[in-house]
Backbone:
């Protein structure tokens, strides 16, 4: 229990790292959205390993197949199933891990919760599980773009190296997905050193949503930021989330943190309400306020490191462990698209829920 | 839509700041739990205003009434309704706010989302809404205590003033609910100064959960930390949440952040698995790992400040605003019990969901 | 667990027969619907006891109070709470029933399920629980009428007496709510005789929905008829439900039961698809087909009868029982409005869900 | 929206008649249940076409593959995905149906709801969709059997031919799955005649559940019978459902329909509460009462008949239609296992929900 997410645009995911396939059923996707395997593959390729020396050298093609819910290039309104078959998984690498609890991993907690676990490559708790999220995110993103909503995530920091300037086009040009050419160079140097030390790095991913209409979010529990917070923390390796000024707001005064409203005129003289600052990060009372949504997410260093670690096995013996296999020294760049995906799924779902907030919209559809 | 929370222990809340009452229906509470109005009142009194000069001088007795679901002192397994009637709300104070959007508040977003809003005291987006959460939290807490689970939240920082030592008993002795006598004095001085400046302060609340069994949390989406993150961000004024080392983990190396497992022996020679550090904050792969759960929550300064602010009204005119009324210069101490309540509701719900994780537990109940 | 119903227009009910109050929170009701206590009271008065000699002579005023979610006569989009305080409940009447399991009632099953029960007047399993349903139904009905959807239920049969003609206006003119003057007379005679015998009667309620747009219902599980079937069977005393030709369809041939489509022209020459018969009862593949929705519901005779019965008590002793109190010899006429209410709630919820079925509707709202 | 079913044991289905595959994700299945593809195939083979001249001669092997959630023969507690690839579907047979609305089918309503439909073989509204239900039902059945719960459905009537005696073992021996040898002969004769007339037949399926503990069902909305009613009506071709005496109860008197309780002693002198009759069908107040659960389901005649029919096409023209392809003259025998499957899924889900009804059970699991 726990592999279903969303209220209207609902996704249901399955699959273990070394099982037959990983995939997702999307229920509640509106009909009439143009959708192809290429649309989805584009996002999957961004999370694919082996893209640079900073990600695992494992070769995984991760090709997706649409199995249902799309007819003649359009979504039909019925359940969409998309999956990626696991092809290059070598299970024997993991046999010696069957009885050992790797530090930082979910081996111990799965074993205790369920009394059994598929230990191969982390089983269900593997990062490969995010394939299903990226697929569903790609579908949501397709719809959101048509609605004028744009979601971009990028690397804000790697270990101690923070970006200092912001050029979103730069992201695709460096393997760390940082919007700052110089910071990216320094960060690459930092990670290269960690690779030499058989160690790993973490970082912060930022996500910005533009074009979101005012009114998205369902108080008092399914607030926009509350829903996104859950979405983010549901991604393995995420240890914190903040919106707008985030934790920094705790040391501000009210007169500083309040964003003053003003009236903005566009070139045609059209007047709209805007804010002079955005400490709120685009959300007031759990509802989007028309400013850009700003969210930061803390990612822990990869738990799988090659250096020697102390741990415990199933028989409650203390043992030494050297995790073999091919691991990412850093998952941050590959996690960027996962953050975007979970944001897209959550926001599209809330936009569909918001459709019935006003009775005049109900009459617009049925009138 | 959005006033229902939880999957098995499900709460449904209602009520506006200046409406007739605020309350909650709790559906799915197990039968046979001893419950009285006093049990609940104890928690409500902790969020009650007027407790010190650092909270609003409004007098609100906030007395709760159990309306259903309890018979002869025990929960019956049917829906429990508890409410607090609004008695001392003076609506006319707020009449001049009917058309003005207060900075930092949800006035503008509610108006845009619904096309109508109850402007009196913030209506549904008022902090008084948390009364319903505290009621439900008190019920969950009653059950959790019997199961050996203990939840304590406290003030970690007020503005720039952080606690430096940790004595939980100290919390009840100072009006700021800080576990550090000296820090509390400094913080009181800081807030007193802000009151003089007609300004307000924020802070960080920490929450620690002890006694949680291993295995709580439902991956891949309803992970323990994911569910708690949503619970926290659903509280008005919260702008961020982190677990264990939280945002600090982003700049650690994997060899630092991984918590090593070891085997602990108790006085009777019983061996259990434990961790040498707790950067994970008690959760691995979204499931409790038997260590203390550690969570920090960032609270923004009270948005209602008495000093002059610039804003906009419904007619899209820029206006000056001085928020009158009786407001908290600081909501952190009153929010502590709300954090505990939302943690309790979420954790008890996940414990009930976990009951069916193993078939051997199903057989234990039906055998 | 089990007192929450619906997906978007979600209702959460509470209250025992002899508790302090019975009521409902409606979450997800669109904003901007005009709503008053009178709108609701009109429906409550139809289920009120004491309307004729065929219903219980108990005096229950059942006056409703709107406690939240309505501001200046309009729904605000936030949770609506409405309740009826219990005033005339005399608990001592029921004391002798504390340990006895009445035949046909839920006394035994509640006791076994929860280990405790509020025995006064049936507690949570009392027919008074339907007050909450009627309240929520009245709200849904208000919205449905504005959308052109009309729901009418009536008494199809009482015991062996079936209606033979159909004049809906007749219903309000006889105490049994039958659309056939003569059948109503015969049925009144039948029930009068049963009253003399300290016995009770059952019957069939039919419900017709007109004006429902094509397309309502969410296959494959939340089909229009499936959702309505659950709604009906959730009403106490209902033992069966059927749509269109219903059980009779089982003995038809395909060539008889298939409803042929044809093209209907209205006075303006507008062509629409219609059906020559309606064995399907207005639903094809779980989706409304534009014909009138037809549903029949079987109601068992009132379980509380004054004649002597054999039963068992909590101590597993066989005892004789004479149920005192003031009971309906027949609940069918009072259940008519409950059937309408549950149909209204279910249909309005499905209409809201259907809003996002097509992406063109999503763009209509956000465009 | 609508392809997810259940609250704890939650299933999510996908697949069109002529798409690549049909299948299901089961989320929330407890860990530690032994499960193989053979366990599931056994049930799929019962719904497989081509078993006799009374079912479609189409050859569909319908072999299932477990894709996730099972490790070394045991469920792991994580999402179980099982699918059947579509192999023998010949789409061109259906090309001429692309624009025609078949009577009795969902062609018209899907087109109107979604603005697009996969017309091949009925697309998502095809009877092949029940493959996913049978798979999930097989898994639930595996667990239920270990808990002592036994579910058996059988054919009660075919057209006008009703069974008169009841020998469950007889069912497997005749192609109509009737528990009465003679009735089965008469019914076969009846259907043979209809085949000659290019017509089709309907019938009634009965389902009996034995061994269900007292206490299953979650009032006031998720009552055992309410949940089952939805489950049954969600199956295509079902037009009605009734419990115990069902519609017949409407013409009984209370003194007849009430089932008297008595105390039953077994050979060891153990005393339990039992009922002298079972008009209630095993459910009181929406909760199982320990008697056998009895449910009848009305199945309409197959809508696809080979004789000429009048209908309408997408261009609103009236046309004549002869449905070609290979169709069942009768789906009742193949639907028996679908009824069992939906009953099993619903009952197992309610049993898992009931685990937390009493706090003493919560303590049993965590104590």
Residues:
């Amino acid at each position: 229990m726990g592999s279903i997410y969303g209220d209207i645009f609902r996704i249901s995911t399955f699959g273990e790292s070394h099982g037959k396939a990983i995939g997702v059923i999307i229920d509640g996707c509106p009909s009439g959205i143009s959708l192809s395997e290429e649309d989805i593959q584009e996002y999957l390729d961004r999370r694919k390993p082996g893209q640079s020396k900073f990600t695992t050298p494992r070769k995984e093609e991760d090709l997706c197949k649409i199995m249902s819910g799309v007819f003649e290039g359009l979504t039909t309104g019925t359940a969409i199933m998309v999956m990626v078959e696991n092809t290059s998984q070598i299970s024997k690498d993991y046999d010696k891990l069957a009885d050992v609890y790797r530090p930082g991993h979910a081996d111990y907690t799965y074993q205790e919760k369920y009394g059994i676990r598929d230990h191969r490559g982390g089983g269900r708790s593997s990062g490969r599980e995010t394939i299903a999220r990226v697929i569903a995110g790609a579908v949501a993103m397709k719809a959101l773009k048509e609605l004028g909503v744009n979601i971009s995530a990028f690397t804000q920091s790697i270990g101690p190296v923070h970006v200092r300037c912001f050029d979103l086009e730069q992201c695709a040009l460096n393997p760390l997905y940082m919007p700052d050419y110089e910071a990216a160079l320094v960060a690459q140097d930092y990670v290269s050193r960690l690779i030499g030390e058989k160690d790993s790095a973490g970082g912060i991913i930022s996500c910005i949503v533009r074009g979101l209409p005012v009114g998205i979010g369902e108080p008092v529990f399914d607030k926009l930021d509350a829903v996104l917070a859950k979405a983010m923390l549901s991604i393995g390796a995420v240890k914190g989330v903040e919106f707008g000024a985030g934790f920094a707001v705790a040391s501000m005064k009210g007169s500083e943190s309040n964003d003053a409203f003003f009236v903005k005129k566009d070139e045609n003289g059209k007047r709209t309400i805007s804010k002079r600052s955005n400490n709120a990060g685009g959300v007031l009372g759990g509802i989007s306020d028309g400013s850009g949504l700003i969210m930061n997410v803390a990612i822990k260093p990869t738990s799988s490191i090659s250096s020697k670690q102390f741990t415990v096995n199933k028989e409650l013996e203390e043992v030494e462990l050297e995790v073999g296999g091919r691991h990412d020294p850093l998952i941050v760049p590959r996690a960027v698209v996962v953050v975007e995906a979970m944001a897209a799924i959550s926001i599209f779902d809330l936009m569909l829920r918001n459709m019935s907030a006003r009775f005049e919209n109900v009459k617009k559809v049925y009138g």
About this structure: The first strand of chain A starts at residue 4 and ends at 5. The interface with chain D takes residues 1-4, 8, 10, 12-16, 19-23, 25, 27-28, 31-32, 65, 67-69, 71-72, 74, 76-81, 83, 113-118, 123-124 of chain A (CB under 8 Å).
